[in-house]
């Protein structure tokens, strides 16, 4: 299994095109954007995405943004 890990993209500071990847799974970690915007951006991948973010209480949450069929 190939993973493509992206971290701390800070999309609120500017638009970033989706990188081309042959990975089986994309992992988004850290400060990507506000949660709703990060999930919307993650949905642009044509493969499964795991979005992992730290909450304000320093716990972590994981969300599956999109699962390819």
What's a quick, concise take on this entry?
With 69 residues, the chain is mainly β. The chain has one helix spanning 35-42; strands spanning 3-7, 25-29, 49-54, 60-66.
What is the typical, i.e. mean, pLDDT?
82
Count of strand segments:
4
Main beta sheet, described? 4 strands, mixed
**Order of helical and strand elements:** EEHEE
How many structural domains can be distinguished in the coordinates?
1
Uncertain regions spanning at least 5 consecutive residues: none
Radius of gyration: 11 Å
Textual characterization of the structure:
This protein has 69 residues and is mainly beta. The chain has one domain. 12% of the residues lie in helices and 33% in strands. It has 1 helix and 4 strands, in the order E-E-H-E-E. The protein has one helix at residues 35-42, and strands spanning 3-7, 25-29, 49-54, 60-66. Helix 1 links the parallel strand 2 (25-29) and strand 3 (49-54). The chain is globular, with a radius of gyration of 11 Å.
Layout of helices and strands:
Elements: E1 3-7, E2 25-29, H1 35-42, E3 49-54, E4 60-66
Parallel strand pairs: 1-2, 2-3
Antiparallel strand pairs: 3-4
Structure characteristics:
69 residues; mainly beta; 4-stranded mixed β-sheet
């Amino acid at each position: 299994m190939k993973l493509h890990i992206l971290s701390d993209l800070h999309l609120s500071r500017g638009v970033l095109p989706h990188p081309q990847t042959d990975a089986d799974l994309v992992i988004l970690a850290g400060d990507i954007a506000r949660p709703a915007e990060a999930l919307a951006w993650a949905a642009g991948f044509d493969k499964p995405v795991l979005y992992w973010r730290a909450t304000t209480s320093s716990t972590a949450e994981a969300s599956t943004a999109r699962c390819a069929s």
